[in-house]
Design brief:
Helix 1 (11-26) packs across helix 2 (47-61). The chain has one domain: Non-ribosomal Peptide Synthetase Peptidyl Carrier Protein, Chain A (Orthogonal Bundle), CATH 1.10.1200. The radius of gyration is 12 Å and the shape is globular. The chain contains 3 helices and no strands. The chain has 89 residues and is mostly helical.
Length: 89
């Protein structure tokens, strides 16, 4: 089932969900998850982990996620922006 698009999800709510995914799936310390944190260098999220994160974001959004949309993602803020764009489709 698709997410309800009549009420836009705030950046804060998307950030909270991304944080939750990183803490639960990859045991990243929540305090380390900041908008400017780099996925690979700061949080030790590798490409396999990134795929798992995209799968979880698909569940969160209810939308089909195109991996190409996440190729340029480097920081947490980039993930939030990519999810925002996905929700606007």
């Amino acid at each position: 089932m698709s997410a309800d698009t009549t009420q836009p999800i705030s950046r804060e709510a998307i950030f909270a969900q991304v944080r939750k995914i990183l803490v639960e799936l990859f045991e990243v310390d929540a305090d380390d998850i900041r908008p400017d944190a780099r996925l690979y260098e700061d949080l030790d999220i590798d490409s396999i982990d990134a795929v798992d994160m995209v799968v979880e974001l698909k569940r969160f959004t209810g939308r089909r996620v195109n991996p190409e949309d996440f190729k340029s993602v480097r920081r947490i803020d980039d993930v939030v922006t990519a999810v925002e764009r996905l929700m606007q489709r």
